[in-house]
Amino acid sequence: MTAPRLSIEALTAISLRDGGKPILRKVSLAVGVAEVHGLVGESGAGKSTIAKAMLGIIPSQVRVTGGRIAFEGRDLLAMSGRELREILGRDIALVPQDPSTALNPARRIDAQLTDGLRLKRGLSAAEARRRARALLEEVQIRDPDRVLRSYPHQLSGGMRQRVLIAAAFGLEPKLVIADEPTTALDVTVQKQILRLFRALQERHGTSVLFVSHDLGVVAQICDRVTVLYMGKVMEQGATVDVLRAPHHAYTKALLAASPRYDRPDSGLEPTPPEVIAALQAEIARFDVGAAESGDG
Amino acid sequence: MADDLLVARGIVVAYGGTARRGTAPTVLHGVDIRVGKGETVGIVGESGSGKTTLGRALLGLVRPIEGSIVFDGSDITALDDNARRPLRRRMQMIFQDPMSSLNPRHTIGRILIEPILLHGLVTDRTTALKMVHGVLDRVGLSRGTVERYSYELSGGQRQRVGIARAVVLRPDFVLADEIVSGLDVSTQAQVLRLLGELTSELHLALAFISHDLSVIRSVCQRVVVMREGRVVEQGPCEQLFAAPAAAYTRMLIDAIPLPAVDPGWLTRGSAMEAAATA
């Protein structure tokens, strides 16, 4: 096995607001070259804290107390702001959740797409514009010249998300962090965006950390998956194995709660109280162990 | 088939006030829908389909420029606010975002008690509080919740308050507009279970608006598929999901990612989508 492109090792974080309550509990996961890795969990699981830690935008009330995030062997957490900024955009790019707020409303699309190409790739203004146009064609925008001239509010949500995907893949990054990139979209648009995303990822051999709450989306787009609950990894493995034969009670509960149109009589199962109690006990045992070993 | 409770025919809604001169954008183009007594009907569609406007028209929150709405045998299409008052108790709504539909300055107790007094179900606060305790027990919230504020509750708890506020008035018809779209799946399962139990216990007719066909399939007996202000197709869930008549319905169903690996899913149906969206 070749070295993973991204390796998160025993990442641990606490909330400074809630008296040092753990937010991440020794999270480890590896994303290989050209692998799409799903990071799935419900609210409060710590998915976005992990993404923020990688981007160097940890909120002030959160402190990382242990572990590392190694990108091609270099710890992102140990880098200076300057070093990290150099890598972000060039080697690591983000596809954000909400296409309506991620673009600057006061600037035309061409300005927003060409910034990175000029700053990170050193292209001239004319070269950058040609490249931006080609990128929009690559994300199957039929009228790239019109879109380049447009302001974000003149585009639909799906079109804006295509622009953001073009921006993320535009610098040919090695790793893309996709943070719930289709949550705000209609299902038919979501499907088109997922198809496009996967095609681009395969063509460029990009590694992806795909953050999602939606097991259905994860099933269709991720090669491997990590299931997170209260900041702790509950289960990880090949998506096909985890979803077909989940080992952990939490994964089973998530699947049982998910409605399926093809199985109307199963699904929507509330998690039994004894399962919730067992999950909480598992978390408590982990915290006791972490405190005893002095690194919690 | 259940007796009709709510029957809307040929509903046309345009926003903007100059509708009769034809300049206001029409958002509903003659929609027919019926909800039987005790029946749960799903209304599904993507953004811009008009599903929320249809719900608002059914409750009289927007006035259609054409068409008729008959509730329990009476035509309520043209009722003014005064004439509509007795209906308000019988037709309730649960909102999408309980955070913005519950007044943050009022305790949950006040939010639940005031409509009971306003609609004259009882006249004294003590009896109203008893009713509130009863409904809190039923929706799985502690009685102490009456002292709390909406921002102190979780999303699932707030949505239980929304359900409690609707059902405590003993309505015949409830409109639920995207009530689980912001919730985690485990919370969603609890809220939908509760709603299902209550509709059958109280023999409620429910119009359940959602963008999520998997949820609709699990919750509803019949479904109405909308697109761009028109009904594309409607029918019993079992039949519509097994053999959708409209290409658009087929496309909506095929767009749902199921939580099981399906290697052909991403590429399947791309030609039909191109045709349907062209």
Question: Outline of this structure?
Answer:
Chain A has 296 residues and is an alpha/beta fold. Chain A is built from eleven helices and ten strands. A six-stranded mixed β-sheet of chain A has the order 6-7-8-3-9-10, with helices on both faces. A four-stranded antiparallel β-sheet of chain A has the order 2-1-4-5, covered by helices on one side.
Describe the secondary-structure layout:
The complex is a heterodimer of chains A (296) and B (278).
Chain A: E1 6-15, E2 21-31, E3 36-40, H1 47-55, E4 62-71, E5 74-75, H2 81-87, E6 92-95, H3 109-121, H4 125-138, H5 144-149, H6 157-170, E7 175-179, H7 187-204, E8 207-212, H8 215-221, E9 224-229, E10 232-238, H9 239-244, H10 249-257, H11 273-292
Parallel strand pairs in A: 3-8, 3-9, 6-7, 7-8
Antiparallel strand pairs in A: 1-2, 1-4, 4-5, 9-10
Helix pairs in contact in A: 3-4, 3-6, 4-6, 6-7
Chain B: E1 4-14, E2 26-36, E3 40-44, H1 51-58, E4 66-71, E5 74-75, H2 81-90, E6 91-94, H3 98-101, H4 108-118, H5 125-139, H6 155-167, E7 173-177, H7 185-201, E8 205-210, H8 213-219, E9 222-227, E10 230-236, H9 237-242, H10 247-254, H11 270-277
Parallel strand pairs in B: 3-8, 3-9, 6-7, 7-8
Antiparallel strand pairs in B: 1-2, 1-4, 4-5, 9-10
Helix pairs in contact in B: 4-5, 5-6, 6-7
